[in-house]
Design brief:
The complex is a heterodimer. By secondary structure, chain A is an alpha/beta fold. In chain A, β7 and β8 form a beta hairpin. The longest helix of chain A is centred in the first third of the chain and has 15 residues. Chain A is globular. In chain B, the strands form three sheets. A seven-stranded parallel β-sheet of chain B has the order 5-9-4-1-2-3-10, sandwiched between helices. In chain B, strands 13-12-14-15-16 form a five-stranded parallel β-sheet. Chain B has a three-stranded antiparallel β-sheet with strand order 6-7-8. The longest helix of chain B has 14 residues. The chains are: A alpha/beta, B alpha/beta. The interface between A and B is large, with 82 and 90 residues. β12 of chain A pairs antiparallel with β8 of chain B, so a sheet runs across the interface. Bound molecules: flavin-adenine dinucleotide (FAD) and adenosine monophosphate. Flavin-adenine dinucleotide sits at the interface of chains B and A.
């Protein structure tokens, strides 16, 4: 079986982002970019499934400009077998991304598509569910444990009420949560090896996918700032302050 | 036809407060709104929904296979009546985040995630980048608006409604490719984090599952919910449903007290809507103090017993 893994290039989670003063977006000039943290976990899971003998090939996929090849190369260095860049200039929305994944799914016939539960830039949390709907295959979102057997997956999901378990037939879409695994570190020799692994570039319109019904993002603003607070000296003052404000 | 459909969330017994919050958001859009309740044996839940103020009617789809909240089955029922609505809204809880994009994709539209404010029938504000930017989003008006509502941004609609209840049979059979096995809930009897008026949280500094008893005992003393940072969940001190933050729960209590939490942006984004934020951290330079309304640089292992003594 093949596994497709979605990798999005995003502003690194440690960066304190700044909104451009003209409201046109978030400043990404000279900012550290990384693989979306959830996608690293998705890739790690795919690699473990392959290493356990339950898959033959792991393919990392990114939609973006040439700069996302950097994240694809990191994915190859982690251990993916090959990479596909779907070349596109614009900032695509989840429906278009899901449609592009569907085209790849038709071509590659994977047994699993593993994505992150959300991209930490737009915080959408949509792409996997949309792909499952378009593909008419199961979705198992927010996975914190995945067990494969007999052409099905048992997935433990992190939901507000606790841990939910579902069983899905393959092929299926899984989106991963933070506690699924801890991604491996990339070793230097692997970076060298990754340079020789195949990375195909396909233009978005070559797949026959176009954006429609897009949302417009008209203005960006920094969040309202909370007023500066006070420091108290000890517990007695803290409790007095809480009582004063009628909070306890 | 300008009408909004709100998708009810429930656990088989009770309606989740997220539903009344979605109704507030729907009401802000300005159209009349209906609620769809899906499940098995849901008469009482439908009645709870009908009592929410400002609701036109409650559509109750009662079918045994809907007894478990599988997105694939729920989405099919919603799509079956989607033509009657200009807007379809669900909560930004894990239930809604799982379900709503299924509906959007089947309708061929993009989804507006996490509506924090309504500026017009097709114009919304929502946070991105873990709440570090607020963006104005305009949805195309020729197609259905499918959205999740950021529940922490909305107050529950009142309880003065008298909507009618319309029963419907399921429009399609259940999917055979997805099977529900079960739910293991971590939560005890404490107030639900997403609706609690007070929340006490602990971080990595607690050091163990046993030490979290300190957090629980203080929480119980003042009737608070108990939360945690990701680090505390990862370390296995507490179950995942206690995680507060970008990838856990976004909450808006009147009072939030963080013990031994450093204040990483991913955590802070989950508490920004709290009325008063209190931080206790032994490092006076910890970033949590930048957003705290009341800060105390001290050891939590002395502060919590002292607080308990002063409050009991
Ligand atoms: C994609 C992604 C998503 C994430 N999502 C979330 C999320 O949803 N929620 C979340 O919380 N985190 C999230 N994180 C993790 C986040 O970045 C931080 O790592 C985490 O919040 C740190 O938890 P902490 O504050 O408990 O631990 P630490 O950062 O280790 O802080 C512990 C604090 O305790 C203080 N301390 C130590 N001993 C004592 C004592 N005796 N008394 C008082 N204070 C003491 C220390 O000074 C320190 O400030 C996410 C990270 C990533 C990459
Ligand atoms: N441009 C992209 N390229 C590759 N994968 C993506 C892209 N955008 C989203 N994804 C995948 O979809 C997941 C969820 O993204 P989102 O729905 O935008 O929150 C991400 O974690 C990725 O796995």
């Amino acid at each position: 079986m093949k596994i497709l893994v979605g990798i999005k290039r995003v502003v690194d989670y440690n960066v304190r982002i700044r909104v451009r003063s003209d409201g046109s977006g978030v400043d990404t000039d000279g900012v550290k970019m990384s693989i979306n943290p959830f996608d690293e976990i998705a890739l790690e899971e795919a690699l473990r499934i392959r290493e356990a003998g339950n898959a033959e090939e792991v393919i990392v996929v990114s939609l973006g400009g040439n700069e996302c090849q950097q994240q694809l190369r990191t994915g190859l260095a982690m251990g993916a077998d090959r990479a596909i860049q779907i070349d596109t200039a614009g900032r695509l929305q989840p429906l278009t991304i899901a449609r592009a994944f569907l085209k790849l799914v038709e071509k590659e016939q994977p047994g699993l598509v593993i994505l992150g539960k959300q991209a930490i830039d737009d915080d959408n949390s949509q792409t996997g569910q949309m792909l499952a709907a378009l593909w008419d295959r199961p979705q198992a979102t927010f996975a914190s444990q995945v067990t494969l057997s007999d052409n099905q997956a048992t997935v433990v999901r992190e939901v507000d009420a606790g841990l939910e378990t579902i069983e899905v037939d393959l092929p299926a879409v899984i989106t991963v949560d933070l506690r699924l695994n801890e991604p491996r570190f990339v070793k230097l020799p692997d970076i060298m090896k990754a340079k020789r692994k195949p990375l195909d570039v396909i233009a978005l319109d070559e797949l026959g996918v176009t954006s429609e019904n897009d949302l417009q993002f008209t203005h960006h603003a920094p969040p309202p700032v909370r007023e500066k607070g006070i420091m108290v000296e000890d517990t007695a003052q803290l409790v007095a302050e809480l009582k004063n404000r009628g909070l306890v | 036809m300008s009408r909004t459909l709100v998708i009810a969330e429930h656990d088989g017994q009770n309606l989740n407060p997220s539903t009344a919050k979605c109704v507030s958001c729907a009401t802000a859009v300005g159209h009349e709104c209906d609620i769809i309740v899906m499940g098995s044996d849901i008469r009482e839940i439908a009645e709870q929904a009908a009592a929410i103020g400002g609701v036109g009617k409650v559509i109750a789809v009662n079918a045994e296979p809907l007894g478990n909240p599988l997105a694939v089955n729920f989405a099919a029922e919603v799509v079956a009546i989607a033509d009657d609505y200009s807007h379809i809204m669900g909560p930004s809880t894990t239930f809604g985040r799982d379900l709503m994009p299924q509906i959007a994709a089947r309708l061929g539209v993009n989804q507006v995630s996490d509506i924090a404010a309504v500026e017009g029938t097709h114009h919304f504000k929502r946070p991105i980048y873990a709440g570090n930017a607020i963006v104005d989003v305009t949805a195309p008006d020729a197609v259905t608006v499918v959205a999740t509502v950021r529940v922490a941004s909305w107050k529950a609609a009142g309880n003065d409604g008298t909507a009618s209840i319309e029963e419907r049979t399921a429009s399609t059979g259940p999917s055979d490719h997805t099977r529900y096995i079960g739910l293991q809930s971590g939560g005890g009897e404490r107030p639900d984090l997403q609706t609690a008026a007070r929340v006490i949280s602990g971080g990595r500094a607690l050091g163990s599952e046993e030490n979290f008893e300190l957090i629980y005992s203080l929480a119980d003393l003042i009737g608070a919910g108990a939360g945690a940072s990701r680090a505390a969940v990862d370390a296995g001190y507490v179950p995942n449903d206690m995680q507060v933050g970008q990838t856990g729960k976004i909450i808006s209590p009147d009072l939030y007290i963080a013990f031994g939490i450093s204040g990483a942006i991913q955590h802070v984004t989950g508490i920004k809507d709290a009325g008063t934020i209190v931080a206790v951290n032994k490092d006076a330079e910890a970033p949590i103090f930048e957003i705290a309304d009341i800060g105390l640089a001290a050891d939590l292992f002395t502060v919590i017993p002292e607080m308990k003594a002063l409050l009991s």
